[in-house]
Amino acid sequence: MTMGEAMTTFRWAGRLDHEALGELMHDAVRNGKSHYSEEQRAVWVPEPRKGADWSARLDAQDVVVAEQEGEMVGFMSLGEKSYLDFAYIRPKAQGTGLFRQLLARIVGKAQERGEERIWVHASLMAHPAFAKHGFEVVEEQVVTIADQDFRRYEMERWL
Questions:
Q1: What backbone phi and psi angles, to 5 degrees, belong to 61?
Q2: Do residues 123 and 141 lie in contact, with contact meaning Cβ atoms separated by under 8 Å?
């Protein structure tokens, strides 16, 4: 059974998931396909996120998790003011439709909240996936982390 054929379950994350979510994010950024250099990825996510600040950030959001065979393979989050803060999928699960499935749950949550739109800062890798699912570029941006500049896109989708 390939990763795309594996049974995927979805659930809303809790505090006990925070460290595993940090590890998943690290795996996606550091080991997945990327339009960013190794130096850029190393300053973006130098190590798996964890600790009080990470937990506080996740506690303030609705986080949907995808699991296959007991392993977290992706997650997305919806924060305040309809901001889609995190969207990460493990390299081995990329290209399997998981992005679409996670996004559908985030859209549903936004609609439950009565939001009119969802907006995101999309990386160069995430931009095409968001565009495919109805997000439009509001602005191309460059942000600096440490000594590295990153191109990204502010995008939005009206609900």
A1: -130, 160
A2: no
Are 74 and 65 contacting, i.e. CB atoms less than 8 angstroms apart?
yes
To the question of domain 8-115 being in CATH 3.90.920.10, the answer is no
Task: Classify 90 in phi/psi space as left (phi over 0), alpha (psi -120 to 50) or beta.
Answer: beta
Distance CA 130, CA 136 (A): 8
SS3 state of residue 7: coil
Rounded to whole angstroms, how far apart are CA atoms 140 and 155? Answer: 9
Entry pTM: 0.93
Q: What is the pLDDT along the chain (159 residues), one digit of tens a residue?
A: 444 457 999 999 999 999 999 999 999 999 999 999 999 999 999 999 999 999 999 999 999 999 999 999 999 999 999 999 999 999 999 999 999 999 999 999 999 999 999 999 999 999 999 999 999 999 999 999 999 999 999 999 999
Burial classification of residue 128, based on how many CB atoms lie within 10 Å of its CB (0-12 exposed, 13-18 middle, 19 or more buried):
exposed
